[in-house]
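Quick note —
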Amino acid sequence: MEQSGKITKLLPLQSGQGKNGTWKKQEYLLEYGDQYPKTVCFNLWGDKIDQYALKEGDVVNVFFDVESREFNGRYYTDVKAWRVDKNQGENAGLETAGQNAQAGEFGTPAPDFLAGGEKDDLPF
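Predicted structure written out below.
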């Protein structure tokens, strides 16, 4: 899956000792959407934390997998990023989201009122 947006918060770095050695995990809050923004918490593991060096305010395109697992009868969901592309412009990812909404989803043309058309065919 893929989502574009802006990093709004870095959560504390987590680390520990596992059966395969030391591990570390960093969680980030990504805000996306125009009029009614949504937030998703995704994480990076190990060397990817230093590789991407994300900070608050970065506009990014995140590629991730969503995975749920059961523990003691409860389910926990992880959004694990496997690639992050930083956008050059401040609003590059957010503009793309707005353009996609205007173009319509699933290949259907957008209604005239979304595309900025002045057509008025009201019956009264």
